[in-house]
Structure formats: C-alpha cells, structure tokens
Amino acid sequence: MSLNDFDPHTSPFLSHLLELRDRLLKAILAVLLVFLPLSFYANDIYSFLAEPLLKHLPENSTMIAIDVASPFLTPFKLALVASVFLAVPIILYQFWAFVAPGLYKSERRLVLPLLVASTLLFYLGVMFAYFVVFPLVFGFLTTTAPVGVSVMTDISKYLDFILTMFFAFGVCFEVPIFTIVLVWTGFTSPAELADKRPYVIVGAFIIGMFLTPPDAISQTLLAVPMWLLFEIGLVFSRFFVHSPDKDDSYPKVIEDQETDL
Question: What's the pTM value of the predicted model, to 2 decimals?
Fold first, then answer.
C-alpha cells in the first residue's frame, strides 16, 4: 500500500506527507531544469569563479588537476551547486507554500518578507566574498609561498575552498534575520541584545577565525560585516518586538478543523 492509497480527508498526517513529497519533487525538478542548460557552460562558469585566483598566480603558473576525472567532474559539480544556488527562490517558495497554512496570520505576514530578505542577504554575502574577499585573500596568499615553491592549486581543492567561503559568508550575512527572529519570537529583546554587543563582536571574530583561512584579512572581512549586520538587525528588530495578537488565536489549519467540526 502506498501513500496515494490513503484518503487525505481521513488521514491528515499522511496528507501532509503527500504534500511535502510533492513540494520536494517540485524543488528537485526546479534544480534539474536549471542544471540542464548550465551543464553546457560548466567550464565557463568554473573559469569565471577561478578568475580571482588566476589574476594573482605568479607568471607561468596555472591551476592543475590531480585526479584523472577532475577536469570533467569538477566543473559539473560546480554547475550542480550553481543550479541549487539559482533555484533558491523556488525552493524557498515551496517551503513557504508548505508551512504557510499552519502559521498565524501575523506570522504569515512576516515570514514571507523574512524569506525574501534572507535570500537576498545570502546572495549579497556570496557576492561580497567573490568581489571583495577573494581578490584580497588570494593576493595575500599567493605572495606568501616560500622561495622555490610554485603556487599551482588543484581545481577540486579550489572548488571546495570557494564553496566553503561562499557558504560561510552567505550564512553570516543572515545575522539581521537571526536578530529579528530572536526578538520577534520573544526569546530576547533589543535592549538585552544591545547589552551583549561586546560578546557579539568577540563571537564574530571567533567565527571568522574558524570559517576563513588563517589570515587576518579574511577573518576581519567576515567579522566586521557580521558586527555591522548585527547592528542593522538590532535597529530593525525594534519594530518586531513580540506582542501577542489576540485576533490570531489559532493557526489557519486549526481554524479550518474547528469549522469542519
């Protein structure tokens, strides 16, 4: 017996599972539809992302491929990751469509803007890493090699490095969203967060130390924006101080169930 054999009206939990399955399939389909055209330009996409390093490599030095299949697999891996990256709005929409019916009215009015803002901030973090951090970091790292050592980075290692950096900066640029959510849920208040500012600054530099290469440039370029974004989130969080809305006593799903009863 499959999930499709159940009556969704008599099995609410299974109906949610069916909807979750459909939403996941639509998200995967969106990624595949984006991946198909990108796969034809996989090498061009890799060359574009390798440009910040190639500009700073010493003369007559190039990137290398250690593994036999790396020249073929690495660009396709990047194309797949880029497909997920570009399909994020559709993926978030599927997530929103799944959870929205179970939210309070006030929550539905806030969650969608937060999803949009978090997506834009993640993209902004990735762009900041590519256009600001990479040129400075690679310009520093390629000049620190000992005499007699040629800087020739493996393409798969480089891909792993830039994806880690993209993820680190993308997530850390979500600090305003985290700050607003903490205040909105009533977990803390803007005043309490402001009192913890020294700990936030120290924590930002500690996170920068763990998520970036062991150089002061990249650590500072991650920690300082995190602190500034925390200050921005602190300002906007004052408009989202938690206050129970008496008109939104139950989520829409519970209201519908009561109507059926």
Answer: 0.78
Q: Quick one: which of 50, 51, 130, 135 has its CA closest to 85?
A: 130
Q: What is residue 67's DSSP assignment? A: S
pLDDT beneath 70, residues of the chain: 1-11, 103, 214-215, 242-261
Q: What is the DSSP letter of 250?
A: S
Nearest CA among 150, 163, 151 for reference residue 53: 151
Question: CA-CA-CA-CA torsion for 11, 17, 19, 23, nearest 10 degrees?
Answer: 180
The terminus-to-terminus CA distance of the chain in angstroms comes to 29
pLDDT at 247: 46
Two structure tokens written together for 225: 């924006």
57 CB-near residues (< 8 Å, 6+ apart): 63, 142, 151, 152
Q: How many domains does the chain have?
A: 1
The range of the structural domain enclosing residue 177 comes to: 3-260
Q: Which of 244, 257, 236, 70 has the alpha carbon at shortest distance from 153? A: 70
Retrieve residue 134's tokens: 């990479």
